[in-house]
Amino acid sequence: MNEMLSGLRNSGEPAVLLSRVTGFEVYPRSVQPCGQGVVFLLRRESQPVLGYWGPAEPPAGLVLSPVAARGSDLEGRLWLGETSHANAMVIRRLLPWAAPVTGGLALSAGLGDRLGVATPGHVRAIRAAGGIFPIYAQQSIREMERTQRTPDDVMDDATWGVLQEGWTQGYGADADHLKSAADIDLCAAAGFVFYTLDPREHVDPLADTDDPAVLQTKYAALPWEQLEATPEENQHRYAGLQVTLDTGLRLQIDAEQALRAACKYGRAVAHLTSLSRHLSVVMGERPYELEISVDETDTPTTTQEHYYIASELKRLGVRWISLAPRYVGRFEKGVDYIGDLAEFEREFARHVAVAQTLGPYKLSLHSGSDKFSIYPIAARHAGHLVHLKTAGTSYLEALRAVAQVEPSLFRRVLSYAVEHYDTERVSYHVSADMGQLPDWHALPDEALPALLDDFHARQALHVTFGLVLTSRSDDGYLFRDAVYSVLRNDEEAHYEALSTHFARHLIPFVQA
Ligand SMILES: [Zn+2]
Description:
With 512 residues, the chain is α/β, with parallel strands linked by helices. Helices cover 46% and strands 16% of the residues. It folds into three domains: 3-94, no CATH class; 97-206 and 230-392 and 505-511, TIM Barrel (Alpha-Beta Barrel), CATH 3.20.20; 396-500, no CATH class. The protein has helices at 3-11, 14-22, 85-94, 119-129, 141-147, 151-165, 181-189, 212-220, 231-238, 255-283, 303-315, 341-358, 375-382, 392-405, 407-424, 455-463, 465-470, 480-489, 491-511; strands spanning 25-26, 32-34, 37-44, 47-54, 65-67, 77-82, 108-111, 133-140, 172-178, 194-197, 241-244, 250-253, 289-293, 322-324, 362-365, 386-390, 472-473, 476-477. It has an eight-stranded parallel beta barrel, surrounded by eight helices. Strands 1, 2, 3, 4, 5 and 6 form a six-stranded antiparallel sheet that branches. A two-stranded antiparallel ribbon has the order 11-12. α8 (212-220) runs parallel beside α10. The two termini are 36 Å apart.
């Protein structure tokens, strides 16, 4: 603590004193030592503003203007400025905890925030749960395009959220589902430290069922040079392999499984290796970590395939902190797990065995939100070696707040979502049926928030987020400004919805 902050504390509650001299509400936890003074965030006309109170000029780099303080006998001078990108960069340099860091093998949760105003709610959930490393900045390039945000926006919004709630215990930043070197460059420039590589376009799902002649042709045509192996060496390594995994589980890969795994994932392994090498050059000395994600494939990843991918990547020098297989069963957006829990448990335990033998690394649960029935299973088998990744569910909680605060706006959003569900659902795993929606037109306003617990309404709202946030008429955005205005004016309703919802996600893992 610096002298300015201890001086404030001697005179009372720092945020209360600063609210008095600024004339605006200062976020209580945001008052933090910085240079010779303190920085803080305040709310002016529902927008965050960066403040500095100190004995002299603010630290170099901050773009702030001196402002006359209101009558007060406090020692110090006041500066105010915007929560701009320029200021966010300086704040991350001045306050190391406001910049993202790697979390290593700690139990972790990714809290994607598509709207850029959810971090304070996420912080509250993480603080209440305890024991979880949070990734507050997380968005895929696809989602950024859909919401018209840049990697800098994603990073800056997390930074301001962390400052607003005074979260000083560290957080991560996940550049999610990256597919190319260009994606990596964009996110590295913005300061991301966690990179999720997605080789989906290089996976050959047909190899599951190709006949032997086709398989042989595909096998011969794999990029062997990039794989730094010959077809014979590969066969020798995997065909007929028998290993006892760390948990005592026996794993066998027969010749046909080895051949199919190579044809299905060989190009993906080569692509991941080249992305990973590119990333290590781009990041240089900066610390970072990697997630391998093969979750977005048509068929579940078998234990043999998981072993094959991990063992090949390891041989090629790739190091990762977490891996997302495509698990058995359905991980649909915004709703609980659909499938046989006993089968999930059996398969998950086998994935854990592979991850502990070839790592240890964490198993990542993508589309991990709302899968309440599998959390205890995952926690039981993987312990803390889990990364739970969520994104769209926070948007749904924002809409829950909208339903509470401005029912007429929610009705318009829902109506639009229902209308566009069929076209927007194509790139998502969902099965909602608009014919099975409750008759929401007849519901009174007070009953609207409960629609956020309805399977069909959740999925309709989930897949239409991009459209809802970006659709325009000649008069401007159809919903975007109105949604943001509710979330800013009634931010406590939003934060409350988020922290309640995420407590249900996090507690099963912390308790394990
Ligand atoms: Zn994913």
